[in-house]
Amino acid sequence: MNKKKFLRETIKHIDFKSFDSTSIIDAMRDMSFTSRDTAVATDILNRMIKDKGCTIFLTLAGSTSAGGCMQVYVDMVKNKMVDAIVATGASIVDMDFFEALGFKHYKGSSTANDKELRDHYIDRIYDTYIDEDELQVCDNTIKKIADELKPGAYSSREFIREMGLYLTKHSKKKDSLVQVCFENNVPIFCPAFTDSSAGFGLVKHQWDSPKKHITIDPVKDFMELTKIKMKAKTSGLFMIGGGVPKNFIQDTVICAEMLGVDVPMHQYAVQITVADPRDGACSSSTLKEASSWGKVETIYEQMVYAEATSVLPLITSYVYHKGDWKKRKFQEWSKYLDK
Amino acid sequence: MNKKKFLRETIKHIDFKSFDSTSIIDAMRDMSFTSRDTAVATDILNRMIKDKGCTIFLTLAGSTSAGGCMQVYVDMVKNKMVDAIVATGASIVDMDFFEALGFKHYKGSSTANDKELRDHYIDRIYDTYIDEDELQVCDNTIKKIADELKPGAYSSREFIREMGLYLTKHSKKKDSLVQVCFENNVPIFCPAFTDSSAGFGLVKHQWDSPKKHITIDPVKDFMELTKIKMKAKTSGLFMIGGGVPKNFIQDTVICAEMLGVDVPMHQYAVQITVADPRDGACSSSTLKEASSWGKVETIYEQMVYAEATSVLPLITSYVYHKGDWKKRKFQEWSKYLDK
Amino acid sequence: MNKKKFLRETIKHIDFKSFDSTSIIDAMRDMSFTSRDTAVATDILNRMIKDKGCTIFLTLAGSTSAGGCMQVYVDMVKNKMVDAIVATGASIVDMDFFEALGFKHYKGSSTANDKELRDHYIDRIYDTYIDEDELQVCDNTIKKIADELKPGAYSSREFIREMGLYLTKHSKKKDSLVQVCFENNVPIFCPAFTDSSAGFGLVKHQWDSPKKHITIDPVKDFMELTKIKMKAKTSGLFMIGGGVPKNFIQDTVICAEMLGVDVPMHQYAVQITVADPRDGACSSSTLKEASSWGKVETIYEQMVYAEATSVLPLITSYVYHKGDWKKRKFQEWSKYLDK
Amino acid sequence: MNKKKFLRETIKHIDFKSFDSTSIIDAMRDMSFTSRDTAVATDILNRMIKDKGCTIFLTLAGSTSAGGCMQVYVDMVKNKMVDAIVATGASIVDMDFFEALGFKHYKGSSTANDKELRDHYIDRIYDTYIDEDELQVCDNTIKKIADELKPGAYSSREFIREMGLYLTKHSKKKDSLVQVCFENNVPIFCPAFTDSSAGFGLVKHQWDSPKKHITIDPVKDFMELTKIKMKAKTSGLFMIGGGVPKNFIQDTVICAEMLGVDVPMHQYAVQITVADPRDGACSSSTLKEASSWGKVETIYEQMVYAEATSVLPLITSYVYHKGDWKKRKFQEWSKYLDK
Q1: Are the C-beta atoms of D59 and D225 separated by less than 8 Å?
Q2: Taking the mean position of all CA atoms in its chain, how far away is CA D320?
Q3: What is this structure's pTM?
Q4: Which residues of chain C have pLDDT under 50?
Q5: Cα–Cα distances in angstroms (integers) from residue B300 to residues B243, B322, C8, in the given order
Q6: Do the Cβ atoms of C33 and D311 come within 8 Å?
Q7: CB-based contact D305 B276, cutoff 8 Å
Q8: What CA–CA distance (Å, rounded) separates A252 from A21?
Q9: Is A295 a catalytic residue?
């Protein structure tokens, strides 16, 4: 079997504008278990959107961007449902930026022979394939961007802004999250940026220029994100998966306090995850637990225990068709940070 | 807080005819993870429906009937998508028959104070409440039906048929699964029938008539179910949760073999579950594992790892609107068994 | 590859007497998460044992008996830690009775090629293999026992007692749970008895003798089990997995109430499970939820979220070496029921 | 209720030297499911230890250090079972360094009233409590260390080395992982270092010295870690939880390749996790999946699906008492990196 045979059917990203989930979510509100949780989460997201002063943080962990939800996040930004993003490096670089460069994810099998895949340089994410040769083009593009920047310490946000600028000139797919966020001044933070394809490019960059190079300063990331929270005051979290992004955004409340600025807890919070809270890891910890840390209010919070690709399209389609986002405007936090 | 305050908002069962999930499922087919699994499962269900010789078994375990999916199962039967049902006693008696008698399930909280609920005689299923006083009416109705039957050993199917007959005269809600199945000759089997509200009623029945009473004969159930499989030959399984129903229907293939009749494995199989296959329990065992037992073919099989209330409405709405069921006719297995 | 190559290494059942987990459990008591839960569960089991009036019910669901814990249950009975058992049919017939007949379970692989296994008539339970030809001997032995019984309706307990009697004469492995319970008058109930290898044998029995045969009466099971609870008053549950056994034993409290006898809730309860409580199924429902139904007291209850083979040996070894069971005596509930 | 009442019982860390799990693990090897997986994982860990050329990476994610396993990791290092560590910031700073400063974790309840905890400045991790006032001392100590360093970009490893140096002078508890690793030249990497208590201290540091301050350079971390892999060649991974540490260490193989150095995949790999592989997240992805990426060999790999506190003490006690580590010597990778 040659490589082509494995990489035949591309993942296509769902478009929540193309169908209307209103009647489904309305029905789920009067059901039980995950369906009701999904409806409640939807209502909380919409409530964030209607609360005019509220800054909405989207956090991304896991592989939903590879798995067909990439356009969901883009459309959330374009339709002013999101003001800032905190994500894993993989979501932003290996998945979104990667597709912006013209590459694709492919439908695969979760029971594939991994040795055979390895022989073809095909990487597997559960039931989804990636061409590793293409991923290396992505790594090298990161290196190229880094090579052209003035040496110094950048927040991941600043570096991702440069990636957005690069895409305005070179992208093959125009509608990437990185580019759309760049164009609408929605900052993207990756607190563990190097834990991704970007890491490879940046290591190569420093390896080739051991004296004069750029570094990524995650302290700066934390400070910038905290500045947004301090200025925004009212905030809501819409979290896909857990991981570092979930912890990082929640910690801004404590960080502000440490800097002597009294800010309210995040007033709204939704998390979609399959993680199990019983191991004490942050990814899976309940939002009620987060309230003990003073991070999240418990009035409007909802955990949805589901694999996100199955419920996220319903939630966002509902909110889109509800239309309350039309009265919002872009908060343009990038401008505030770049001042 | 008085009891009424807890039992204020009723669970309303979702109607898959009232919305059309076609475009959502079509989109999910090109995504990853649970969304794609959901689409594949949908396609397999529809394939069973299009295969004219195929008998479709619906199995029910868990509390989805209480949690808002009760009408889904009724509508599947009414629209000829199901030919026989294997279920837990609770699904059929405590939930479906219970609502047929005019009672309701209520929206509750998964973090309720259970002691307080107990004080009010309110039973909790995760985030759903039941009035225990009403459940006792249900128990007693079972007893009444048993009291009027001729003493002897009945299969659970035969007893549930009598429940259906009872409902044709006394039901407050006409559209119950028990009654609709009765009227369309769709047999319902509960291999662990007494592990439910029915158990209470039947124990009381035997307690009051220690000499002359009815018994439930689960061996007869197994024989009847196997007879259907032997006659049907081609079969598909649509399984909500695992438990005894899943095991029981799968075992009919082996049972037929034991009786000297060579039958094919179940040719189609879908299971929706949140269970974890790593503990070796049947509920969670994969359909591939079942194929080692000679129970299920692996060409058209799909596990969907999701809480059923969140994906079942999408799957069934798609199949409903696809309309292939229109060419099917009722197989009326009850008539065959009652001959 | 021939069949022998697959069936080479047998599962050996762990012997909790052969090592002493005391210091491990003592350490776990001061840790967090599953380790502490394990220690608390251990302490509750020991508390049941020390409470002299307390009847201890062991419930078994899942495949831990096949997976190396068979001797644990036998040794619990022999050392007077268990007074009655409620189990799935598979635990008792396909696993325990099966090994009593001289057969074995084998170490296998969870990623085996199931088609290949099927070709060799090898059944797989996750990573464990069974020789299906041997399982059919087990089915036929059940048939033989049934053939020799006086026609009529038997509780599963009564039938399993006959299996025990059979083993006293014919067993190849003396130390089976069925035989040891028979010899010590510990009743075993399988509320879904036919959902197992027993089902095959009993169907064949009825098929061959359509007029004069035995039936299994699960109503009688429920009544007998409730009688124990009514007489015992104080009771504790030690539950491996969930399923029908968990529900059935919990329901005895309600059943007694229905019969007009006021009994206390089960005062102690431990459950070891990997199930996820968020789907509303009974298997996974928390013991706090059960208290809303009036089934289980919440003072001494503990869920342990773990695959049982990993923690059960630690729990039972601790209790064994603690030695409080030495002051207990056999309650011999079988004698009470057979009167 | 005052704060003291909540913080009464401290978590005590298990000492794997104080008991001998040899006979338990030996028994588990012939069982099924998680018990056998645990034994296989133990054998693989011991195999890494016996392979003299092999560098062993320990990765830590989740809260096992808070939950009673802190001494396990310390003792692994002291007994030469670990050559380098990749961890979440929380494991190293909020938990280990925190206790080194003389503070404690406390036994709590997973069903606590989080609002009440919040009022007392008590942070909850599932069933474990932390005094937030003490955590702020920890934050400030980090700031103090940063304030005294020469401005510039440090890898997290370099900064943690300074923390170790600080502890040699100021620690209240001598046996911390940070100090023991410092003293034995075992490098610790936190690729998302600022996502922890360290983040607060470092933000304060930069806030107070906007012009001249230190930054953490995660690119440097990745390069240093890759240098170890390139030099070590043979390597094994012992992973507690998933998260960034798991991904980061696996990626060193790819990173080396990018730098033009051909290194073998990690030859040994064990992961203990409760995560569910079906959502496509890295934390939960199987090691077989990692082999498709060219990261991990599949000859000696084992996933153990368990909450780590329950099985880790058994695994490490076995390896400790086996004694093969006695023939190893400290690899002192810190010295190599500091050259």
Answers
A1: no
A2: 18
A3: 0.96
A4: none
A5: 21, 19, 32
A6: no
A7: yes
A8: 34
A9: yes
Short-list B13, B43, B18, B131, CA closest to B315? B43
CB atoms within 10 A of CB C184: 17
Instruction: Name the active-site residue from D107, D295, D326, D339.
Output: D295
DSSP secondary structure string for all residues of D250-308: HHHHHHHHHTT---PPEEEEEEEE---GGG--GGG--HHHHHHTTSEEEEEEEEEES-H
What is the pLDDT of chain C when averaged over all its residues? 95
CA distances, B145 to each of B86, B193, C215 (Å): 21, 15, 21
Classified as helix, coil or strand, D236 is: strand
Which of D242-252 are b and which e, b meaning 16 or more Cβ less than 10 Å from the residue's Cβ?
bbbbbbbbbbb
Query: Which residues are CB-contacts of C51 (< 8 A; sequence separation ≥ 6)?
Result: C234, C236, C267, C268
pLDDT at position A285, please?
83
Arithmetic mean of pLDDT over chain A: 95
For the four alpha carbons of C31, C35, C40 and C43, in that order, the dihedral sign comes to negative
DSSP string, A181-208: HHHTT--EE-TTTTSSHHHHHHHHHHHH
Q: What is the pLDDT of residue C1?
A: 62
Instruction: Look at residues B145, B200, B215, B203 and name the one whose alpha carbon lies nearest to residue B178.
Output: B145
Least confident of A71-75, B129-133, C288-292, D43-47: C288-292
Contacts of C280 in chain A (CB under 8 A): 32-33
Provide, rounded to the nearest whole percent, the portion of chain A with pLDDT above 90: 91
ipTM (interface pTM): 0.96
Among candidate residues A33, A118, D85, the one with its CA nearest the CA of residue B66: A33
pLDDT of residue A298: 85
Helix (H) or strand (E) run with residue D46 in it: helix D33-50
Q: For the CA atoms of chain C, what is the radius of gyration? A: 20
Main-chain phi, psi angles of D279, to 5 degrees:
-105, 5
Structural Rg of chain A based on CA atoms: 20
Residue burial D159-198, b: 16+ Cβ < 10 Å; e: rest: bbbbbbebbeeebebeebbbbbbbebbbbbbbbbbbbbbb
Contacts of B313 in chain A (CB under 8 A): 24, 27-28, 35
Query: Is A276 in Cβ contact with C33 (below 8 Å)?
Result: no
Contact C287, C296 (CB under 8 A): yes
A233 dihedral zone (left: phi>0; alpha: psi -120 to 50; beta): left
Q: According to the model, what pLDDT value does residue D1 have?
A: 62
What is the band of B1 on the pLDDT scale with cuts at 50, 70, 90?
low
Tokens 């280990």 label which residue? Answer: D96
State the amino acid at position A76 in one-letter form.
M
Tokens 């369906």, residue? Answer: A35
Q: Angle, to 10 degrees, between the axis of helix A33-50 and the axis of helix A308-322?
A: 40
| Closest to D194 in 3D by CA, of A194, B247, B134 | A194
Cα D138 vs. chain centroid, distance in angstroms?
18
Contact residues, chain B, for C203 at CB < 8 Å: 219, 222-223, 226, 255, 258-259
Confidence of residue A100 (pLDDT cuts 50, 70, 90): very high
B93 pLDDT higher than 80? yes
**Secondary structure element (H or E) that encloses residue A153, with its range:** strand A152-154
pLDDT of amino acid A165: 98
With a cut of 50, list the residues of chain D below it in pLDDT.
none
Mutate to test the interface with C, among D10, D33, D43 (most CBs of C within 10 A): D33
DSSP secondary-structure letter at A320?
A: H
**pLDDT reported for residue D72:** 98
CA atoms of B170 and B167, how far apart (whole Å): 5
Q: Are strands D122-125 and B128-131 parallel, antiparallel or unpaired?
A: unpaired
